[in-house]
Task: structure prediction
Amino acid sequence: ETGVTQSPTHLIKTRGQQVTLRCSSQSGHNTVSWYQQALGQGPQFIFQYYREEENGRGNFPPRFSGLQFPNYSSELNVNALELDDSALYLCASSLWSPSGNTIYFGEGSWLTVV
Amino acid sequence: AQSVTQLDSHVSVSEGTPVLLRCNYSSSYSPSLFWYVQHPNKGLQLLLKYTSAATLVKGINGFEAEFKKSETSFHLTKPSAHMSDAAEYFCVVSDRGKAGTALIFGKGTTLSVSS
Result:
C-alpha cells in the first residue's frame, strides 16, 4: 500500500465533456504530480503542485488543470475532452526535501472518451 | 533535457534464468535514476533508485541495477526470474533541482517469464 488513493477507478465520458479526477495523498506530503499513461506507453508528466501552487508542467495544453488542497488531496481537471485523452491517469505524491524524496503512486483512474 | 531509452520493448526468459533489462540515459548533470514495475491493472511500484551514492543499487525482490557513467547506462538485473516477475518495467530519470520531482519515463519493457 502506497497511501495514495485515486477516484474514480474507471469512468467513461463523451468527447467535449469535462472530467475531474481526485487523489488523496499521504498525510504530510507537500508535493503531488499527475501523469497520463496511454495504452502501451510510459507515463507522461502533466504537472506538479508544491504547497498548493503549480511549479512544473509537461507538454500538455491549458485544458488540463489542477488543484492541490491543504488536506493533502488534489484534483486533475480536463476540459473539452478529446478521444486521445483516453488513458490511465496516475497521481503521485511525495514529501520533498533538499536531501531527496520518495514518490508514491496511486493505482490510477482509467478514463475512456467516446 | 533528461531522457531515458529502454533498449528492449519485450524480454522473454524462463523461470530460474537471469533477467537483464537495458536502459540508457541522457542527462546534462548527474542524474537520479529509478526502475519502476507495473503489474497488470496495478499502480507503479518503485524497485530501486540511484541518487549518486553507491553505483550498484539493490532493490526489492532480488533486483539490482548498476549505474555506469561511462556507458550512460542503468541496466536492471536479477539472478533468477520468478513467474511473479512478469510485468511492465520502466526506467525513469528525474528532473533535479525543482521542488518536488518530475519523472521522465521510458517506454517500458514487458518481461515475460515462462515455466
Q: What stands out?
A: The interface with chain A takes residues 32, 36, 42-46, 49, 51, 90, 95, 98-108 of chain B (CB under 8 Å). The longest strand of chain B covers residues 87-95. The two ends of chain B are 41 Å apart (CA to CA). The mean pLDDT of chain B is 90.
